Amino acid sequence: MNTTNLPVAVIGAGPIGLITALGLVSHGVPVVVFEAGAALSSETRAGTVLTRTLEVLDRYGALGPVLEASLRLDEIGQLDRATGASAGSVLTSALAGETRFPFVVNVPQHELEPVLAAVLRDRAPDALRMRHRLVDFTQHPDGVTLRLSTPEGMTEFAAAHVLGCDGGRSTVRERLGVPVSGHTLGQRYALVDLVCDLDVEHPRDYPYLAYFGDREEWVVLVRQPHCWRFVFPLPPGRAAPTPGELRDKARRFIGDAVEPEVLGSNVYTVHHRVASSWRRGRVFLLGDAAHLITPMWALGLNTGVLDASNLPWRLAWVRRGWASEELLEGYEDEQKPVAVHGSAAMAEAARAVMDRRLEPVAGWSDAMTRTLLGVRLGSGPPRTRTGAPQVGDRVPDLRVFGPRGPVHLHELCRDSFVALHLTDARRRPHLPADGPAGLRQVVVSRWDAPHDSGLRSRAYFDPGSTVRDRLGDVAVLLRPDAHIAHVEPWTADSWRHVRDRYLREVRLAG
C-alpha cells in the first residue's frame, strides 16, 4: 500500500491537467501541477464543454465559475449547408430526467483554462507552478523523482505518482518509451474566431452550436461568449489559409454586409492515435498524452475529461489504505476502450454526417451519445432509456430527499462508494451502520423511514418511487465517479453481497 505523504505530480496545465488536479484536491490528495510555459495557453482551440464534463466539474467543485464564463445552449443544430434546412437538431432538454445539467456550454479553451487555474489556486494555493519544464524522471518503489528545468536552474521534486497530462507531444510518454499507433487524416481543420453582429444588425437564427453538413465543404458554427467561431475542413495538400482568408471564407457564409474582426485563428492536423500503454509503474498518461481523438463533436477535450474522472478517486483510495495498488490497473482497462472504440467510433460518425455520407439522427439516444458521450464502462452497448441498469452504466442523476432536503444520486457518491437499497423502509431492512472504509449503505424508499426505525440517518425519501421505477427493486453499488459497480435483485442479504462486492472492487478480497 502507498501510504506516502508525497504529493501527486501533474505534468501540464491544460484543461485535463487542471481538472485532474481539481479531482485530486476534491479527494484530499496533495497535488502539484508543473507547466513548462510562463503563461497558460492563448491558442484558439477547443470550445465546447459537454454535459458529462459539467457533471465532473460539479463533482470537483469547479462548475460555478465555468458556467459564469460560458454560454449555455440546449440545441445542437444539424443543418444542410446547401439549403440551410434543418436535418434534425439534438435537443438536450431530452435529458432533463438524466442529469441536473441538460445542456452543454461554449467557452474557448484559452478562457476556460484561467477559470480552472483560479479555482485550483483558491483551493490549493501553491499547487500550480509555471515555468517548470519536465526534463526526466526516475521511478522508485515508493515514489518518483522528477528533474525539472526552471528559471533558477535544474531542480528535483519527489512525488508519489506522476500523471502525464502534457498533450500529444507528451514528454512523459516519450520518457516512458511508450509508442503510439493509429493514423493521421490527410484533411486538416481550419478555425477562426470572429467578432461580428449576427444577433441584431445582421440577425441569424442559427443554433449556438450548428453543424452544416456538405459533401464539398462542411462548416461548424459556434457561438462563443464574445465572438463567433467558424471551423472549415482543409483539403489534403492545401496551404494553410491566412486569418484574412478565413475571415473572407466566413463572410461568404454569413453575408458580405457583415464586417467581422479576427480575434484568432488556428490550423491543426487531425489524428487518431492511442498510446500502447497508459501506465508504467507510478506514471500514468491522460488526455492527449494517451489518446488523440478528432475534436469534431467536441470529442477531444471531453474524452480526456473522462480520464480525469476515473483516475483521481482510485489514487485517493490507495493512498488512504482503502484499496490495494491493484485498483489502479482499472484505469487503463476501462478508459482505453472508451477512447479506442467509443470516441473513435463517434468521430467516424461525425465525419460521415458532416460529409453527408450518413444521415444524422435526433432523439433521446442521440442526446445521450452527443452530450453524455453514451458512456458505459466495459463491454456491451450503453443503457437504453427504459433498460435495467447494468454494471458500467453511469447512473441517472435522480433526486431523492435526505433529512434536510433534496440531494441527487451523484452527490451521494462524490467521495464514497454508496449502496442504494431500493426497498421498503417500513420493513426495517438490515443495513450495517459501519463497514469497510469507503462504503456507505442506504435505503431509498417512497416510505419515509420512521424515527424509531434505526434507519433515519441512512434513509432517503423517494416520492412517487421515481428512483425505484427507473432502477427497479434492486441493490445498486455506485462508485465515486457515478458508475455502477454492482447491481442485483434486492434481498435481505443484499447488504452482505454489496459489502463483498465492494471489497473485490477495491481489490481487498478475492
TrEMBL record:
It comes from Lentzea xinjiangensis. It comes from the Bacteria. Keywords: FAD, Flavoprotein. This is 3-(3-hydroxy-phenyl)propionate hydroxylase. Residues 375-394 are annotated as: Disordered. Residues 6-339 form the FAD-binding domain. Its cofactor is FAD. GO terms for molecular function: FAD binding; oxidoreductase activity, acting on paired donors, with incorporation or reduction of molecular oxygen, NAD(P)H as one donor, and incorporation of one atom of oxygen. The lineage of its organism: Bacteria, Bacillati, Actinomycetota, Actinomycetes, Pseudonocardiales. PANTHER family: BINDING MONOOXYGENASE, PUTATIVE (JCVI)-RELATED (PTHR43004:SF19), TRK SYSTEM POTASSIUM UPTAKE PROTEIN (PTHR43004). Coiled coil: none annotated.
